Amino acid sequence: MQLFVDTANLDEIREAAEMGVISGVTTNPTLLAKNGSGDVESVIKEICQLVPGSVSMECVSEDAKGMVTEGRKFAQWGENVYVKVPFTVEGVKATRVFTDEGIRTNVTLVFSANQALLAANAGATYISSFVGRVDDIGYDGINIIEQIVSLRDMHDFDSHVLAASIRHPLHVVQSAEAGADIATIPFKVLKQMYYHPLTEKGVAAFKADWEKLQGSCATTV
After folding, report:
1. For every residue of the chain, which 3-state class applies, written as one string?
2. Could you give the angle at which helices 113-121 and 141-154 cross, rounded to 10 degrees?
3. Beta strands 182-185; 160-164: pairing state
4. What is the set of active-site residues?
5. Which of 62, 118, 194, 196 is most buried, taking the most CB atoms under 10 A from its CB?
């Protein structure tokens, strides 16, 4: 399963890229607003330079015609830009246009297997199924990932299943076990994945033993 970082913060993206484990970036209007830059085009272009994998940029129009106009413009910002389209009737219409034009898409705000089937039939490149937000209303977000993956494989759709709305490291593991192709995760969660108390303890012990060894060698000399 590939890992994307879900942020528009350039400092976070640089650090994530340096880790060598990130294959792409997902953004949305909320994340871009938090970044504080009004020049969205320059931000996306810089992200495309930092991360050679896919970079998702979201449409904000509510009608298919507006989304198509936006998406065509976004696709010109970089060869690795994927147009992020909200799952609505208009969004699915736009997805079909993008598919026919060879523009890669990320259909977002998917909360059910039915929605995923519609997105797949429209030719969505990525289908972003939200785990945490489904859990918030008392349902099982990981189970929906499993359903979508099963249907995708059963019917041989080309769409990739992307687990989104990841809240903690366990969601990442569960998404991988459910068969998701990608998980897009907040930078905070990416850093949490590195931590384990036994690893920290082991590193400290090795360092202490090495220092003792060096001290012993110095005394011998």
Report:
1. CEEEEECCCHHHHHHHHHHCCCCEEECCHHHHHHHCCCCHHHHHHHHHHHCCCEEEEECCCCCHHHHHHHHHHHHCCCCCEEEEEECCHHHHHHHHHHHHHCCCEEEEEECCHHHHHHHHHCCCCEEEEEHHHHHHCCCCHHHHHHHHHHHHHHCCCCCEEEEECCCCHHHHHHHHHHCCCEEEECHHHHHHHHCCHHHHHHHHHHHHHHHHHHHHHHHHC
2. 40
3. parallel
4. 84
5. 118
Structure tokens at 79: 């060869």
- Structural domains in the chain plus CATH codes: 2-220 (3.20.20.70)
What confidence tier does 221 reach under pLDDT thresholds 50, 70, 90? low
Of the candidates 77, 79, 80, 103, the residue with the CA atom closest to the CA atom of residue 26 = 80
pLDDT tens digits, residue range 144-173?
Answer: 999 999 999 999 999 999 999 999 999 999
pTM given for the model: 0.92
Q: How far apart are CA 91 and CA 38, in angstroms?
A: 25
The mean per-residue pLDDT over the stretch 11-38 comes to: 91
Residue 207, Cβ density class (10 Å: 0-12 exposed, 13-18 middle, ≥19 buried): exposed
